[in-house]
Write a structure and sequence with these properties.
The protein is of the alpha/beta class. 34% of the residues lie in helices and 23% in strands. Residues 4-232 form the Glycosyl transferase domain.
Length: 232
């Protein structure tokens, strides 16, 4: 396993997509860059395929976050790097994460540590979503984000074919939590083991491309993710 496939999830952020695809296609470890393109946002730009021969467009008629894991184009590698279009890391950071993944191909290897916690302990409690601040304060994590994470392509296939319909429906209804579902889905196949993390320097090498259109910026984002963790 010498190379991996990048799958870019994108939505109406063409400048970020341009920067992301150019950068990731330039990395020697990347065999292909698959752009997950929802047709609800219109036709893909004509310039996209001219940027690099590694880039392919995967056109989806369904507007759903579940579609980021729905492989319509067979990847040329078993290793998948799932990313959002507004996050970059140096090629060497990708290589470091990939090396760790090749040592544990049944696990996810991520760059973003998150956790699930208990809230309302006095009243029986419920599971809740823990941001990075919670993870750092407690020095423990249990999840990672698929905005930048390695995983085996078989998990994408099983997510699409075998994930309980109630979970897929909840993700569609609230347009959130597909990353939580995938983390739990992989852990359910590894006896509850959490994802692994890339080296600390690679985790900290993130470059975030500015965007004012992000799901995480909505006022109810945390509340929805709390419910997802508790339900899933």
């Amino acid at each position: 396993m010498e190379q991996f496939t990048v799958r870019v999830n994108t939505w109406k952020r063409l400048e970020q997509l341009r920067v992301s695809t150019i950068h990731h296609a330039s990395c020697p470890g990347v065999a292909q860059v698959q752009v997950v393109w929802c047709e609800a946002q219109g036709e893909p730009p004509s310039w996209l395929l001219t940027l690099n021969d590694k880039i392919v467009i995967e056109r989806h008629s369904v507007n759903s976050l579940n579609e980021r894991f729905h492989m319509l184009v067979e990847p040329p590698t078993i290793g998948i790097l799932s990313i959002d279009d507004d996050v970059l890391r140096p090629c060497l950071a990708l290589d470091a994460g990939f090396v760790r993944w090749t040592q544990h191909p049944d696990r996810m290897v991520g760059f973003d540590a998150r956790s699930h916690t208990v809230q309302g302990k006095k009243h029986g409690g419920s599971w809740a979503y823990g941001y990075l601040s919670t993870t750092e304060r407690t020095n423990r994590y249990s999840m990672t984000l698929t905005r930048y994470a390695f995983l085996h392509r078989d998990y994408l296939r099983s997510y699409t074919n075998d994930l309980p319909p109630s979970i897929r429906s909840y993700i569609d209804e609230h347009f959130n939590c597909e990353d939580i579902a995938m983390t739990f889905w992989v852990s359910s196949h590894t006896n509850g083991q959490p994802p692994l993390l890339a080296d600390f320097w690679a985790v900290k090498s993130q470059v975030k491309l500015y965007s004012d259109a992000a799901i995480s910026s909505t006022s109810d984002h945390k509340a929805i993710r709390d419910i997802c963790v508790d339900r899933f």
